[in-house]
Amino acid sequence: MVLTLVIAPLLFVALAGVLQLGALRVAVARVRAAADLATLVAVNDQDDAELARSGSLRLSADAAEVAREYFARELELSSSLLDGGADAIAAAADVAAYPSAPAYDTRTGARYERPTVRIAAQVPVRTPVFGALVLRPVTTIEVLSVSSPR
Amino acid sequence: MKGVTAAVVVAVLVLWPSAALARDPFGDDGRPVSPEPERDPDPAPLIAPPPGIYYVTETYVADVVTSSGPVTTYSTTTVHESTGTYARALDTVGTGASSVFDGSAFNGRRALGDGRAVAGTYYENYVLGAGGFVPISVVFFQDDAEIARLLGATPAPPAQITPPSTSAATTRSFVPACCAAERPVASTPSRTPTPAMVIRPGLSLLPASAPLASLEVLRGRAVALYPRAFVEDREVPVRSWAVIAGDTGEALTTAGSGSVPFRTWWRRLAPPDAAYEVAFRIEVDTPETGRRWVDATIAVIVRSPALED
User: Fold this and answer.
1) pLDDT tens string B249-307
2) Between 20 and 30 A from B90 (CA), which of A86, B56, B154, B203?
3) What would you report as the CA-atom Rg of chain A, rounded to the nearest whole angstrom?
4) Secondary structure class of A76 (helix, strand, coil)
């Protein structure tokens, strides 16, 4: 009886931590999927005039705006997990479009051989159980997504 | 007393209705009935073209050179269709006059028999993109005529020739009676018959855009390729075309007349570092070229948006 009373709180804390960790991994996956989908959609938006002129794929002028818009839309679907508005998070994201290649990404140092869209964002996610366990109640997810036509 | 109490209870229940808090099992079926009539979505905002730019309703087809007796006319044929492009007149030049746009037109600027450039007008074509009007090509609409001085003792019709000049120059201004209001005509020595002309084929994404040797397309994105033909520096009309080799993807048709583009899209990507080589046979049948066939190929690289590591 005494042993149960001693062990039960520890088990409860461990169980809660595991569940919170699992929820956090789900949130990470959803945020990454949102960024990936946003960059893919933006890359799919091509400059038709340039294509007719040169026959080469080139990102449209509003590719970065398209990526940011779709990032916000996708994050909105996971708004219950976020510690902030989806629009605000997307607005704060570092979205860069490289319409023609080759190009260098000053943030990551990468060299892109194709027209590329890149999203780098910090997405705050609620982790209330961690907060109850004297950890951070909000965990920030660093997400980086890069897409190009290949 | 009990009867009165029961009557009061019943009256209260009847006169005090309230909505039942329950889920409507059929609430998700169909759209809710709205008392307001449905409205059409707002049309796309009208983006007015800048001054000088107008919507194209007559599309360039080819430069045409016709000879009627001693008079050779340089004109441009068009087709009444809208390809969604816009245009602006850049410069109108006279016979022999130079222009800053010489060499910029995809169809070139033809020369008269004496080497002077023909008269006409340069136009710049635009497409309306997300960022506004984007120039895509420059085309020259020729509009000129000349009269050839016939060889030997065969005189030109006197009614169509200006009084002879004492000058030794072989070229002089001439305005035929039939065309005085249309264009100036210059007389030049007749040319010797030229050998068979070299027909240069091409394929482009727009009727008046630059011919392409290779093309990148996104998987599943529909494209239209216009088979075209050029003689020297000008375009001649295509009578028909047919795909003779290559992977045509999901083509609607593999043959057609010159005014019909080849429309297709590709479902599959080509192997790595490879492209779909599509070969066309283009038929040209004009008075100056005769009925001839030329082959054109284009390398189509199908790409798909992908995530980088």
Assistant:
1) 998 888 988 889 999 999 999 888 889 999 999 999 888 888 889 999 999 999 998 89
2) B203
3) 20
4) helix
Neighbours of A64 (CB within 10 A): 19
The tokens for B242 are 């047919």
Question: What is the distance in angstroms between the Cα of B131 and the nearest Cα belonging to chain A?
Answer: 7
The secondary element (H helix, E strand) that includes residue B75 is: strand B71-80
Opening angle at CA B68, ends B236 and B290, nearest 5: 35
Residues 6+ apart with CB under 8 A from B246: B276, B277, B278, B279, B297
Q: Which residues of B touch A (CB under 8 A)?
A: 127, 129-131, 134, 136-137, 204-206, 209-210, 212-218, 221, 303-308
Which of A 29-88 lie inside 8 A of B, CB atoms?
36, 39-40, 43-44, 46-57, 60-62
Separation CA B118–CA B96 (nearest Å): 6
Decide: A103 and B308 in contact? Cβ < 8 Å: no
Chain B hits for A47, CB-CB cut-off 8 Å, are 129
Segment A57-70, tens digit of pLDDT:
989 889 999 999 99
| Per-residue H/E/C for B149-166 | ECCCCCCCCHHHCCCCCC
Assembly ipTM: 0.79
> Tokens 């869209």 correspond to what residue?
A117
The full DSSP string for B127-156 is: EEETTEEEEEEEEEEE-EEEEEEPSTT-PP
- B187, pLDDT greater than 50: no
Query: A46 is written with which tokens?
Result: 């091509």
For residue A133, give the DSSP letter: T
Among A53, A62, A110, select the one facing B136 at the smallest CB separation: A53
A74 conformational bin, left if phi > 0, alpha if psi -120 to 50, beta if neither: alpha
Prediction pTM value: 0.56
Instruction: Using the predicted structure, report yes or no on whether residue A94 has a pLDDT greater than 90.
Output: yes
Strand B255-257 relative to strand B240-245, pairing: antiparallel
Count interface pairs A-B at CB distance under 8 A.
Answer: 77
State the amino acid at position B35 in one-letter form: P
